[in-house]
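Much of what follows relies on a compact textual record of a protein's fold. An example makes this concrete, so a full record is given next.
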Amino acid sequence: MTARTSTADKQTPHSFPRFARPEANTHASSMGFRSDIQGLRAIAVLMVIIHHLRPGALPGGFIGVDMFFVISGYLITAHLFREMRATGTIALASFWARRIRRLLPLAFTVLLATAGLVYLFIPATEHGTMFKHIAAAGLYVENWALVLDATDYAAAGQMATAVQHFWSLSVEEQFYIFWPLLAALVLWVSARVGGKHGASTVTAGSRVFFAAIVSVAVLSFAYGLWLTAVNPPGAYFNTAARGWEFAAGGIVALLARRGAVRGIPGALLGWAGLLTLLAGAMLIPTETRFPGTMALVPVLGTVAVLAAAGPHNRPWLSHAHWLSIRPARVIGDISYGAYLWHWPLIIVAPFVLRTEPKWYQELGMLILTLVLAWLSYKLIENPFRFGKFLKPVRNSMIFALAGMLLITGVTVAGSAAAAHSSNLPRMSAQDPCYGSGSLIHPENCQPVASNFAPYPSAVMVSQEVRAPLFPGCEADTLQVGDVSCTLGTTQNPTMRVALVGDSHASAWLPALEILARERGWELVTHIRSGCSPSVAALKGAEALSGTAYRLCTESMRALGPALAADTDLDAIIVAAQGNKRSWVSSPGYEFKNPATEGFTALWQSWSDAGKAVAVIREVPRLGNKNVPTCVATSPEDPLACAVSRKQGLDVPQNLGKALKSDTAPAGIVQPNLTDSICDENTCYAVIGSLITYYDQSHLSHDFARSLAPELGRQLAQNPVFAAPN
């Protein structure tokens, strides 16, 4: 979102640095208030809201954020340039105080209201993540929190947070800090350049400021293209990758300072810009990587609108005329509040309604958003912006600090409350019906019909996604080099076993570590998040960024021969998730069916080297739901999150298909734990008082432990894996 600039709340400048006042400008400026920008804001915010309510209706509506970035760059650059010309200085403290008065009162209000909505309506399993992001939003670093989540494989599949939209506000606030500092630096340089060459500070400053903005645009655009290619999720929220969009607006502001494009050329340029924006909102696919080259569509479209004025004698031909009509200006006035309020309502609505909203409920959310935005504009935005309380710079700074501390305190308290949720009564781990024992002994146990509440609680299980039992045993998707750890028996082991796979292999560690201790194995891990244990190549690097794909491919091609050549290694266990990736032959490997042979080629090489090989079949899934959150949402109905056995097994079976293929080597042990999660009719979310998954597909730590006896029994089909006599 952008902050409207105004001269209505000027301060006595706290000037740094200070230079002589320049000569008065004799040219008319076009940098004053433009009502058509309010209409442009209205289009941008409605694009974003409609896209979030109904992505299919406006797949590219997210480009409204890019429009806001360009508008911000235009307005703030124009404001700073006017100040430079009028005073020969940049009053940094006053500038930042104006931004505080304009933006923070409503932002803090929405964050506190959102914290309350989260506490009241969102399942406690999500509170830790939600409150963490509310704190990040209050500190205006939400974009960087999302960058960390985007590059954190463990965060994949999390529900969107109620303040995720604050990422763009965080980027803008960081821009508001950097841009005036850049302008102040320009003045400092200009004073020396102008003095040496006989030019005025302002004349030299204009040239240096323009050159600096162009440099920022070029460098940021190049960086954004590179980062979008190697790490698209992280690039989307990265401030440096977005800087060129602000700079584009700044370039227009400086180029148009003596007048915009007028007449028929201006009208054509303006309408072309608007049509470009509307076409982009309708035609750009939601999954498009941003901010790559496709981001030029909203940026250039917005630049065209800002640069054009149209004919004076025929205003009805001008885009600016229609963007300035009262309904557009009203929505533009409340666009900041509309942007702030709409997303928390969208996130909370399904939990309040207990179902996904229908079209008429989505329309109601749109109306409620606009009503809240109008009330906020009248009761919060304008009173704080123009009132006397925050007028002194010192008061504004204190208000910002106090608000950030308050938001942080509220989120800490909310997270603590969720962490201390009740976990009693609990079933004893020695109970024969505990965990998977319920399905192993169906004659004496009922899988979910129990007087015991799930323990660990849904909140505790949901935190396992970020709390691995064995830290340092799994490489992240972007981590360079192999990561390995050793579990079980390290002194005189009965045999050495390697565990190979992705994060689903890590999910089996609680069970395998028990077996390793009981049977005297030395268990060595070779696990990489999101990396299927195949030497085939992904078609189009599906589901992985370029860097992650390269690291995955390099690690698997190196690991296969290394394990085969390790004479101290006795056995290898493979585990991985099922996925819908497409495979092709890779350099050095020619496959008839890469989807299966990429796996079996590794297994064959290990078998040929005399290693015992076991491949644990993919586990069922309970749909795409986050299982602990589902359990917490319906605590009174333990079957609410269960699915039919047919649905549970309706997931990609990459390993299963490879095991059934003609190229699979003989003698591979194939543990299949489906019957410990599903009976003949149903796959369960809670079994023997244990929640089965800590997210959508990874076995929870305690449930995996309960599977150790059955996993050990099935592995022992090959005597190499059996317990010693």
Summary: The longest strand covers residues 495-501. Confidence is low (pLDDT under 50) at residues 1-31. The first helix runs from residue 35 to 53. The CA atoms of residues 422 and 457 lie 8 Å apart.
